[in-house]
Each structure stands twice: as structure tokens, then as C-alpha cells.
Amino acid sequence: MMRLAQAPNLVIATLWADMLSGAGFKTTVQRAFAGSIAGQIPPDQALPELWLQDETQCQAARALLHALQHPPERRWACAGCAEVIDGPFDTCWCCGAAAPAAP
Q1: pLDDT at res. 4
Q2: To the nearest whole number, what is the mean pLDDT of the chain?
Q3: How far is the C-alpha of 61 from the C-alpha of 28, rounded, in Å?
């Protein structure tokens, strides 16, 4: 087993672990409840951690984790009303037209 990453909170750690596990990387969350003693130990030691069970998958798991942490930004112009849409939206908030297919 090896430590893959430290997460800012338990929700994010669980989300990352679920995404990695779904992609075939056996991942566990350690220090899940250490936040309750954050004032008694250094704050960085109370953060949850992701641990990978198979060390040979480390590079691929880190690549997927990086992709999860840095999603591509999407910006598109609506064909119906020319409104510029930022973010993960699939429909125009102005006229309701569908987003163009991603390249």
C-alpha cells in the first residue's frame, strides 16, 4: 500500500476514492475521522488521505486523480441565441438550446 494523496476534506476524499475505485484502482480513505482532533494535532495531519493498494498502479492512478482535480474548462456559444456559456452546462440558460457535441 502507498499513500496517493491528501484531500482537503472527507467529502472530496470519498469522491476521489470512489472515482478511482470505479476505474479499477483499489483505493481506501485513511484518517477519515481525524478531523475531530484537528486542534490537538497539526492540521495537515488531520486531513484524510487516499491510499492505493497496488503500488504498480501508482502512475496511472495519479494521472486519473490529476484529471479529477483539474477538469477541462468548457466554454461554448449557443447556436440559438449566441449567449456564451461557461462551465459544465449542457443547455443554454438563456434559451434552453442544447450544447454542441464535444470534439
Answers
A1: 92
A2: 88
A3: 13
